[in-house]
Structures are given as C-alpha cells and as structure tokens.
Amino acid sequence: MADITLISGSTLGGAEYVAEHLAEKLEDAGFTTETQHGPLLDDLDPQSIWLVICSTHGAGDIPDNLQPFYDCLLEQKPDLSDVRFGAIGIGSREYDTFCGAIDKLDSALKSCGAKQTGDTLKINILEHDIPEDPAEVWLGSWKNLIK
Ligand SMILES: Cc1cc2nc3c(=O)[nH]c(=O)nc-3n(C[C@H](O)[C@H](O)[C@H](O)COP(=O)(O)O)c2cc1C
C-alpha cells in the first residue's frame, strides 16, 4: 500500500502534471505514492491518504475522467470514514464557478465520512502560469499535517 494516493481529474492534462509533480516531491520527502488519473472508487485503497487534484470544466463541472468516481460517491454513499484526504482545485477566476469541481468533490467525500486534512488549495491559472509552483508550496505544509 502506498502512503499517499494522488487522484487527478483533468480534461486537458494540467491537473495530471500537477499530480505527477507532487508525487515526485512526496517521494523525495520519503513517502511512497501511487498516482491514479481518473480512477474508479474500487481502484483506491482507503488505508492510503488520498490527495485529490482536480480542475474544473464546463460551468463548474467535474472532468469526464473523474465523473464516474463522483457519481459513485453520490449514488452509492460508500463508507469512507477511514479515509483522510487533501484537496487541490485548478481553475480560472474568469468563471463564476471558480474551482467548482473540487468544491463538489470535497463535499461528496465528506458526506461519505472522509476527513479532510488541511485546507483546500484553489489555484487560479490567471495568476499562476505554472500551477505546480503554488501546489508545491501548499504541499510543504500539507505533508507536515499528515505525518
Ligand atoms: C471550456 C472550459 C470551461 C471551463 N470552466 C471552468 C469553470 O467553470 N471554473 C473554473 O474555475 N475553471 C474553468 N475552466 C478553466 C480550467 O479549469 C483551466 O483551464 C484548467 O487549467 C484546466 O485544467 P486541465 O488541464 O487539468 O483540464 C474552464 C476551461 C475551459 C476550456
């Protein structure tokens, strides 16, 4: 079992790059990691800490590759009371529904009993050309919270 499972939801690939970058940083810090792009619930180990990294598409919508996972949380209400998770959203402030997807995922995970560690980071791509940079800063504090 990996210490941390990075879960990405992405349409154009940006959130996947962020997940891969953070996995590298976590490995450098001594954690074992697994990275899953658009997993289904059954692909995930509840004993591992989940780090969800998701961009937003449409009008506050979850990317297609993570929609089945989200639907499963809403429809099946699995018991995730053993799960700890962190959350990073990527979006653009030009939309009213800024980072709407990570808000939806946070609340669906919590409604299944999962416990969030740290605050949700919301990265505005209008401010950050390279979303890996603010994500790496946030990770510096988050990894101390999960020790
Ligand atoms: C068609 C379209 C719709 C979008 N809708 C939203 C939105 O509702 N809220 C938001 O915060 N960002 C929105 N964005 C911005 C994307 O989240 C942003 O470009 C992000 O970096 C894409 O990440 P990805 O490469 O992981 O798909 C939208 C982008 C596109 C192209």
Write the topology of this structure:
Layout: E1 4-9, H1 14-28, E2 33-37, E3 49-55, H2 67-76, E4 84-91, H3 100-111, E5 115-116, E6 121-124, H4 132-145
Parallel strand pairs: 1-2, 1-3, 3-4, 4-5, 4-6
Helix pairs in contact: 1-4
The structure holds flavin mononucleotide (FMN).
Residues 10-15, 55-60, 63, 90-92, 95, 97-100, 125 line the site of flavin mononucleotide.
3D structure, described in words:
The protein is an alpha/beta fold and 147 residues long. The chain has helices at 14-28, 67-76, 100-111, 132-145; strands spanning 4-9, 33-37, 49-55, 84-91, 115-116, 121-124. Strands 1, 2, 3, 4, 5 and 6 form a six-stranded parallel sheet that branches. Helix 3 (100-111) links the parallel strand 4 and strand 5 (115-116). The model has no long low-confidence stretch (mean pLDDT 97). The structure holds flavin mononucleotide. Residues 10-15, 55-60, 63, 90-92, 95, 97-100, 125 line the site of flavin mononucleotide. Pfam families: Flavodoxin_1. It comes from Yokenella regensburgei. Keywords: Flavoprotein, FMN. InterPro entries: Flavodoxin/NO_synth, Flavoprotein-like_sf.
Q: What share of the residues does DSSP label as strand, in percent? A: 15-25%
Ions, cofactors and other bound molecules: flavin mononucleotide
Mean pLDDT: 97
Largest β sheet strand count, sense and barrel closure: 6 strands, parallel
SSE order:
EHEEHEHEEH
Report the total helices: 4
Termini Cα gap: 16 Å
Number of strands: 6
Radius of gyration: 14 Å
